[in-house]
Structures are given as structure tokens and as C-alpha cells.
Design a protein that fits this description.
This protein is mainly alpha-helical. The chain contains two helices and two strands, in the order ββαα. Strands 1-2 form a two-stranded antiparallel sheet. A hairpin with a 2-residue loop joins strand 1 and strand 2. Helix 1 (22-43) crosses helix 2. The chain is rod-shaped. It starts with a strand and ends in a 7-residue tail after the last helix. The model has no long low-confidence stretch (mean pLDDT 92).
Length: 125
Amino acid sequence: MAQVTVTIDGKAYRMACEEGQEDHLTDLATRFDRYVNHLKEQFGEIGDLRVTVMAGIMVMDEIAELTRRVASLEAELESLQNNRDTVLAATARTEETLATALDEVTTSIRGITEKLIAKPAPNTH
């Protein structure tokens, strides 16, 4: 287990994380610290716990919005996939219809060709 020291609101916190996740944890702490600093600039010194709770709520609000957006995009993707499947099925049916029509035309042409070949040549007296 790796150890990382992060700084939030000027205070150092030693934290454990999985090996290889140190930079990610440091980045997350830095981003959270920006929320805390933003709130302190906006409201002044209103108490560490209150600022931390407010910053946590801001982060949760952002996560909720992103979750809504992901759900909307997933629904749109599903709709597009369904439309694609419908178009592919219609295309397959159209190809089958065209193939059947082509077979029928080919059969008719063969029949006409056989009749023309079997017909005796006209007399030219």
C-alpha cells in the first residue's frame, strides 16, 4: 500500500492508496482543495468543517449532474443502436426482396431466350 501526503486548505494529510494511484490521489486532493479555497474566498473564514462540508456538497452536485448527463447519453446511444438495428433489418428485407425480384426477372429472361432459340426461323420466299 502506497502512502501520499496531500494538502487541503493548507493542512497536510497522509493517506494510503493502491500502488500506482499516488498521482491520481494527489490530483483529486488538489481539485478538492480548489473547491475549499473557492468557498473561503467567497464566504471568508466560516469554519473548517463547514467549508469542507460545503465543498463536499459541491462535488456531489457536480457528480449528480455528470451522472444525469451519462444516463442521458446512454439512453441516446441505446436509441441510436435500436435505430441502426431497425435500418439494418429493413435493409436485409429490401435485399431479400431485390434478390427475389432479380431471380424472377432472370427466370423470365431465360424463358424468353429459350422460346426465341426454339422458334424456327421465318421463311423468306
